[in-house]
Amino acid sequence: xxSRSIPAIMEEAERLAMNGTKELLVIAQDTTSYGYDLPxxxxxxxxxxxLNTIDGLEWIRVHYAHPAHLSQRIIDSIxxxxxxxxxxxxxxxxxxxxxxxSMKRGLGQDGIRNRINRLRKAVPGIALxxxxxxxxxxxxxxxxxxxxxxxxxxxxxxxxxxxYSEEDGTSAKNRNDDVSRxxxxxxxxxxxxxxxxxxxxxxxxxxxxxxxxxVDEGGEKVSIGRTEFDSPEIDNIVHxxxxxxxxxxxxxxxxxxxxxxxxxxxx
Length: 267
Fold this sequence. Notes:
Elements: H1 6-18, E1 23-27, H2 44-51, E2 59-63, H3 72-80, E3 84-89, H4 97-102, H5 109-122, E4 127-134, H6 141-154, E5 158-163, H7 181-204, E6 210-217, E7 222-226, E8 237-241, E9 249-257, E10 261-266
Parallel strand pairs: 1-2, 2-3, 3-4, 4-5, 8-10
Antiparallel strand pairs: 6-7, 6-9, 7-8, 9-10
Helix pairs in contact: 2-3, 6-7
C-alpha cells in the first residue's frame, strides 16, 4: 500500500464537495494502515479530522478497516467526527483462532471481539459491516461452528460471505484446497440464514421511527435511498413513496421492513 498525502486527498475531497458531493467514501485495502509510510507519524485519525472540516460534505464513510490495526486513536476519531457515519466496514474474514492464524490476520477471536466492544462503547449505535470467507483450506467442522457462534453473538448489522478460492500471491495458494464445493456452499448458506434472522430483527426495530435518508434514485412512484448505516450498492436500501430528487437528504417514516429493505414515506 502507498498512502496519498493529506493535502492531496483534501484537494480532491474539497473539489468533490464544491461540485455537489454529499457523501465521501474513504476506501483502501486497509484504511487503518493509512499514513504508516508517510513522514511525521500520520494516522487515519488525522485524515478523518481534516475531512470532517469540509463544507458541504454531510457523510464520510470508512471502508475496509483491518481489525488488527484498528487503534483506539482511530476509534476515538470516528466517535468525535460529526460527519463520519455511524458505520464501519471491518472485514474479519473468520472467527476461528486456527483459521485466523493460518490467514495471518494478526488477531484471534478475542482480539476481534475486543475491537468490536471498544467500537460499540465509543460509538453507540454504530453499524458494523463485515466480510467472511468459508471453506478456507483446513477449515474443520469445529472451525465453522466457532464462526457461526461468533456471528450469532456479535450480530453484525451488515454481512457478506464468500466461499474460498485460490488467489495468486497469497500464502493460502500453497495450501491444499481440501474443503469440497458442496461443503463450502452449505456453510455459506448457513451463515446467510443466521444473518437473515439478525438483519430482519434489526430492521424491525426501525418500524415507527423517523430516519434521515439520502436519496439515490428518484422514481415517479417510488424513490430509493439509504441511511447512514448503509453503503451504496452493497447494503440495505430504503423505498420511499413518491418522487424525491436524488442527492437530497429527507426524513422518512419507516412503515414496514424486510431483511434488506426499509419501506416508508416522507415525514
